[in-house]
Write a structure and sequence with these properties.
6 helices; Rossmann fold
Length: about 130
Amino acid sequence: MTVFADASALISLIAGEADADDIADRLARYDKRLCSALSLWETVAALRASHGASVMHARAAVRSFRVETKLEVVPIGEIEFQIAADAYAAFGKGRHPAALNMGDCFAYACAKFHGARLLFKGSDFGKTDIGSA
């Protein structure tokens, strides 16, 4: 089975937040683990903004975590764009209670395109039709 890790899950895991053990257990259930450059960028930005890490330190932590957990970076192309645009129309902020933002829409799209479950923190994706990890 395949999982796509949203930035919210990556942030929790790397920063050692209270729910990190639960998220790590859910990630460990999957042999194929995916993320995107966008989810990695969001993780770096959040570690910088919310956890006080320098960009250089956050990048190194993200890179190390990605290698350690065997997260494969998948490309984002035209099909993912179309799925993300559809997700925004259906579940986007100001349109639906899930209130997905740009990063969320692309995580949704990558998970859908790859037939993956989505690993995330919070309740936003739970209000959509995506399968959760």
